[in-house]
Amino acid sequence: MGNAATWGLIGVVLGLLAAATGVGQVLRRQRELGLNPAAVAAFNSRVRAGWITCCLLAAAFWIHNSVTVALFGFISFWALREFITLTPTRLSDHRALFLVFLFTPLQYVFVSQNDFELFSIVIPVYGFLFIPASIAIAGDYKRFLERVAKIQCGLLICVYCLSFAPALLYLNIPGYENKVALLFFFITMVQLSDAMQYAWGRMYGKHIIAPSISESRTWEGFLGGSGCAALVGMVLFWATPFGGWAGPMSLLISVMAFAGGMTMSAIKRDRGVDDYGTLVEGHGGVLDRIDSICFAAPVFYHVTRYFFADLS
Question: Are residues 43 and 181 in the same domain?
Answer without folding.
Answer: yes
